[in-house]
Amino acid sequence: MDGKNDTAVTYFMLVGLSEHPRAQAIFFCLLLMSYLVTLLGNTLILFLIHYDSHLHTPMYFFLSNLSFLDICYTSATVPQTIINCLVRIPIISLGQCLAQMCAGLYLGVVECLLLAVMAYDRCIAIGDPLRYSVRMSAQLCAQLAGASWISAFLLTVVPVLTMPLEFCGQHIINHFSCELLAILKLACNDLRIYELLIMVTSSLTLLAPFAFILASYGRILGAVLKMRSAEGRKKAFSTCSSHLTVVIIFYGTAISMYMMPQDKASRDRDKIISMLYGVVTPMLNPLIYSLRNKDVKGALQKLLGEKNVP
Fold first, then answer.
1. Which of 8, 85, 222, 244 gets the highest tally of CB atoms within 10 A of its CB?
2. What residue spans define the domains of the chain?
3. Which residue intervals define the domain G-protein coupled receptors family 1 profile in the entry (predicted)?
4. Exposed / middle / buried, residue 193 (Cβ in 10 Å: 0-12, 13-18, 19+)
């Protein structure tokens, strides 16, 4: 296991925190709690948007996409990680590991693109409010959301399937899940093409959308400063602050993971960062959007009020 040989790899061992039982027990409790909060919070957001007709707007259409995405994103890796905390030697088959890697990579890229689409929606809503309903039609919203899901598939899953990895010796993955960068460290392919592909894909799915979001918020800031009404400025900042908070957390951690130089010392750092954008962000999304959003809180109060009526 310590060196390469000619034996084909059929399984991997996920180290995680298995060498530290006490830390793993704490990690198990935190991870389980985070996953339950993610499921409950995002499911509640989906239900409220479907339930309340006042939330049938482009902004909440994209938010419902984000909530559905976060449920899928965490479910792709977190349940397996929770199970691994309960066994002494966590083992995953090669096929399951590659499937988990593709799913996590694909859904992560969808989130990158979807956050950029949400920034565009806010830019139109604040910069051109009189024509907002015309410019952000239901058809265009569906096309933008669909383009995010389809583009992410073409940028992630298709390249992985067309350039399969080969493993010929090492079994141990120093990670909680089958993360792309952790998997590549064990591959015996010529990794130069993969490293180039990661740089190109990261530029298209991280740097380009992030730059687009910054440009959108630059236009939003300009539009807000031109508003004469203090109440209007406050409302505009309120509707954008939730999205901007999510963007900073998600893009900040993802860029530091995939755009920073990799070395041996970065392995433990990568495990922590992957938990931030793969577990913490999906858990915080419904909390951020519900606690900082009057419409969502109003829909929840309306639901609870009607449920309490005899």
1. 85
2. 11-303
3. 41-289
4. exposed
The SS3 call for residue 222 is: helix
Burial letters 15-36, b for 16+ CB under 10 A, else e:
bbbbeeeeebeebbeebeebbe
Residue 201 and residue 160 in contact, taking contact as beta carbons nearer than 8 Å: no
C-alpha neighbours within 13 Å on the C-beta side of residue 115? 31
Sign of CA dihedral 229, 235, 239, 241: positive
Per-residue pLDDT tens over the stretch 217-273:
898 888 888 877 777 777 777 777 778 888 888 888 888 877 766 655 556 677 777
In CATH, what class is 11-303? Answer: mainly alpha
| Spatial distance between the Cα atoms of 181 and 267, rounded to a whole number of angstroms | 9
How far, CA to CA in Å, does 135 sit from each of 70, 124, 128, 166, 271?
A: 27, 8, 9, 48, 42
Instruction: Answer whether 179's CB lies under 8 Å from 104's CB.
Output: yes
